[in-house]
Amino acid sequence: MIELADTTAEADRIDLLHQVLESGSVRKATRMLNALHPAEIAHVLQSLPPPQRRIVWRMVEDATGGEVLLYLNDDVREEILRGMDATEILAAAEGLDVDDLADLVQDLPAKVTAEVLSSLDEQRRERLETALSYPEDSAGGLMNPDMVTVRPEVTLDVVLRYLRRRKDRLPELTDNLIVISRQGRYLGVLYLTDLLTNDPDDSVAEVMSLDVQSIPADAKARDVANRFEQLDLVSAPVIDLEGRVLGRITVDDVMDVIREEADHQFLGHAGLSEGEDMFAPVLLSARRRAIWLGINLMTAFLAAWVIGLFEATIEKVVALAVLMPVVASMGGIAGTQTLTLAIRGIALGQLSTKNIRWLVSKEMAVAVLNGLLWALVVAAIAWLWFGSSAIALIIAAAIILNVLAAALTGALLPLLLDRLGIDPALAGGVILTTVTDVVGFLSFLGLATVFLL
Questions:
Q1: pLDDT digits (tens, 9 = 90+) for 82-122
Q2: Confidence band (pLDDT; 50, 70, 90) for 443?
Q3: Which residues contact 234 (CB under 8 A, 6 or more apart)?
Q4: Alpha-carbon torsion 275, 277, 283, 285, what sign?
Q5: Is the four-CA dihedral 416, 420, 421, 422 of positive or negative sign?
Q6: With the C-alpha atoms ordered 168, 170, 173, 177, is the resulting torsion angle positive or negative?
Q7: Closest listed residue to residue 405, CA positions, set 350, 328, 347, 349
Q8: Whether pLDDT at 50 is above 90
Q9: In whole angstroms, what is the distance from residue 84 CA to residue 87 CA?
């Protein structure tokens, strides 16, 4: 109930801010805007058309500007950065954590990036360069180099005194301390609860935990998110090829990955990018969407060509033209269900070449049962509608064949596309629709040509 009330209060504050902005009260709007959390300010900016967005951005205080930029989607962030000079960008970047700064720097022009790097002290610059050396969608790209490390031979009392001295500089979400060797290699973690509840004279080696596995810096962000979800981790250390600790990943970074993955899956079915601005310029949006519209047009012509092969059959039996969409639609829905399941399996790391046979067998069995059920239903409707048992049997057979083809394609296609380096979420739906249309029309009209003419 408390969380629901907080969410409602947040929505009310943002709605009220929109009303104040529309009234033209700049001072009041500025005070209200900067009282919001950076994520809420980003939400406001993304819900405004570009002209109003630029006005509101100028109201944001420099102290929170950097954090607000991090919460914006890619398109809106790029738009705002284009309108900022180097001095403003440097002011916004000041005070950001190294991992957050790495995310921001990747969107900056090379000249501004160089200025940001030169403005940092040597330690932060080295950590930032390390973070930037890894792909954005890897554990190295996600990690925060800021961490607290301890040696196994020191006592808990020494650790406690060390933490008290740097209490104002502890990284956020510190639930444990990373135990390393003299060479900087990962050994284990010391949970804060163990630190506080054990004898201060005990050594770190005596109470540290070996249960938390380190994450290779080149691991995929998707795999990192799966590990955090499965093991309920708050943080985890990141190591290089030699086992040296480079930094740590925290749950807030993983939540961003999960959200982006969900957005990608949802928008990918429509050929859209998860970072696309809802109020992006018309030409930019049109150009992005034109690609998938063009691909869809080619596949539609392929299906039309198949229909054209049976033009004479359709002319003689008009009922076929009426029933054709039913066959294609049933296959499309059945295939989409399997396709979505397979894409999710790949995203969660649950589907691979080792178990694909089981998925195919299961989905084909489901397709047989559903195909028989709905083929009988459609056949009965077709018989009552057109009074032809031949057409009823033909459409029943076509639906069964198409549903089976759809299930097979939906199960195998995502894995094949993933192996080829093609995003299944973007391309899978288009290819599946083509297969179900072609197979549906070919089986229905082909059977009709053989048995009705």
A1: 888 878 888 887 777 777 787 787 777 777 778 777 877 77
A2: very high
A3: 173, 175, 250, 251
A4: positive
A5: negative
A6: negative
A7: 328
A8: no
A9: 8
